[in-house]
């Protein structure tokens, strides 16, 4: 938890130290899911510290331990971060692939806030590559999940985006 708090406060060196310590402790307890979740948080810190290659390697290592049934939000976070790293490396095909995988995981998990942010990333990528209609679809998907029944004031429930 300290590592997470340090990361939120942009104290990245301290966050890395704490998250590495947590990873060792959880691994020793054979807490595989929690170890993988900490690894995703650590990868984010590594990326933010300019260690994107180490972050990507760590993410690829733990993705096999996460799935849509077990750790879906963190698996999606891993794909989201791999997409960002791929975009930084100008590998738009890989970035799109990771964003789409993350999108699928987040839709099933019902993580509306994360899904909306991911749809923004995917939409922006598609727009930059000249696929405006696909970008609009991605944005609508994100908005559709943020405007679930019961979230609007007047009139009928928001319309679901077309598939």
Features:
single chain; 163 residues; mainly alpha; Serine Threonine Protein Phosphatase 5, Tetratricopeptide repeat; 2 domains; 74% helix; globular
Brief overview, please?
The protein is mostly helical and 163 residues long. The chain has eight helices and no strands. The protein has two domains: 1-60, no CATH class; 66-148, Serine Threonine Protein Phosphatase 5, Tetratricopeptide repeat.
Model description:
The protein has helices at residues 2-8, 12-28, 32-48, 52-63, 72-88, 92-109, 112-128, 132-146. The protein is mainly α and 163 residues long. Helix 1 (2-8) packs antiparallel against helix 2 (12-28), helix 2 (12-28) runs antiparallel to helix 3 and helix 6 (92-109) runs antiparallel to helix 7. The mean pLDDT is 88.
As a whole number of angstroms, the C-alpha radius of gyration is: 17 Å
As for the number of domains, it is 2
Number of separate strands: 0
Question: Strand share of the residues?
Answer: under 5%
The name of the CATH topology of the largest domain is Serine Threonine Protein Phosphatase 5, Tetratricopeptide repeat
N-to-C order of helices and strands: HHHHHHHH
Determine the oligomeric state from the structure: single chain
Structural class: mainly alpha
- Main beta sheet, described? none
Q: What gross morphology would you assign?
A: globular
**What is the architecture of the largest domain at the second tier of CATH?**
Alpha Horseshoe
Distance between the termini: 39 Å
